[in-house]
Design a protein that fits this description.
alpha+beta, 6-stranded antiparallel sheet, 10 strands
């Protein structure tokens, strides 16, 4: 019985020690902290992908400006054009960008495009360009995300 108790205690200690090492060495918990990208809200039903394209967002600061960076992943084996309008959820509902023309860009097959502070303006959204009070900021959406498969002639 003492051997069984000793083995059980050593097993629990080993798992606890391994979990601590995993966090320190960049395991799942550390990875979650290191990856600030969140699913961009695409639809009320929680859909995170539209026709093979995933959308993500990350709120950050570029210089002294509060921004949302956007990331798209094209999981298709063909080039697509994506089109969307920026939106932010507030306590009183969704607030959409006042720019009437939807944004769009092209994604190569299997490619990922990532918004950066010094990157494409269409992948960087100033929070104050959509809502007046940054305290009201809720989930970000690439509202009305649509993808269009490009024909062979359109890809050249």
């Amino acid at each position: 019985m003492k051997k069984l108790t000793l083995i059980l205690a050593l097993t629990i200690s080993a798992f606890t020690f391994k979990a601590q090492i995993n966090v320190v060495a960049g395991g799942p918990v550390a990875a979650a902290v290191a990856n600030p990208w969140q699913d961009a809200v695409l639809r009320a039903d929680g859909l995170t992908e539209v026709e093979g394209v995933e959308a993500y967002s990350m709120r950050t600061t570029c210089g002294n400006q509060d921004v949302v960076l956007i990331k798209f992943v094209n999981k298709n084996n063909y080039k697509v054009r994506v089109e969307w309008k920026d939106a932010i959820k507030t306590p009183s509902g969704w607030v959409y960008s006042n720019v009437q023309t939807p944004k769009s860009l092209y994604l190569e097959p299997g490619n990922t495009v990532v918004g950066q502070c010094n990157g494409l303006d269409k992948l960087k959204v100033g929070v104050n360009t959509v809502i007046n009070n940054p305290q009201d900021f809720g989930p970000f959406s690439v509202s009305g995300l649509a993808t269009f498969k490009l024909t062979q002639a359109q890809t050249k």
